Amino acid sequence: MKLITAIIQEDKLDEVREALIAAEIGRITVIRVDGHGQQEDTEIYRGIVVVPNLIPKVELKIAVNEEFVDITVDTILQAARHGADGAVGDGKIFITPLEECIRISSGQRGGEAI
Fold first, then answer.
1. By C-alpha distance, which of 61, 59, 62, 55 is closest to 88?
2. How far is it, in rounded angstroms, from Cα 34 to Cα 53?
3. What average pLDDT does the structure give for the chain?
4. How confident is the model over 33-82, as pLDDT tens digits?
5. Confidence at 114, pLDDT banded by 50, 70, 90
6. How are strands ordered across the β-sheet holding 29-35?
7. Contact indicator for 90, 80 with CB cutoff of 8 Å
8. Domain limits for position 87
9. CATH of the domain at 96
10. How far apart are CA 69 and CA 1, in angstroms?
């Protein structure tokens, strides 16, 4: 089991969610977050260029069994990119081992609980 965490731009959320559903990945958690990486988003405030410290993003958390890792990652990569080559600030994907998953309602454990 793996936990896939993807941080993407807000405007790509619907596109990524629809692509995941089409790939039969229907169970996701969405969290609104703020962060800053290499992306520089400048604004003009009262005639002065201001670089905000944090930029609004969306974090997706998806628990999957091993056979769905590549499908999930490839789907996010295709749907979250701006343009064919992507752009700075499109986001990142992290894959971490998931030690245990327990469904609260039934007590199921492991891959069956996902």
1. 55
2. 9
3. 90
4. 988 776 666 667 777 777 667 889 999 999 999 999 999 999 999 999 99
5. confident
6. 29-35, 55-64, 2-9, 91-97
7. yes
8. 2-113
9. 3.30.70.120
10. 9
Is pLDDT of 95 > 90?
yes
Give the pair of three-digit tokens for residue 71.
């499908």
Q: 3-state secondary structure string, the chain?
A: CEEEEEEEEHHHHHHHHHHHHHCCCCCCEEEEEEECCCCCCCEEECCEEECCCCEEEEEEEEEECHHHHHHHHHHHHHHHCCCCCCCCCCEEEEEEECCCCECCCCCCEHHHHC
Strand partners, 29: 61
The total of structural domains in the chain comes to 1
CA separation for the pair 85, 100 (Å, rounded): 36
Kindly report the number of other CB atoms within 10 A of residue 59's CB atom. Answer: 16
Looking at the chain, the whole-number percentage of residues with pLDDT higher than 70 is 93
pTM of the model as a whole: 0.83
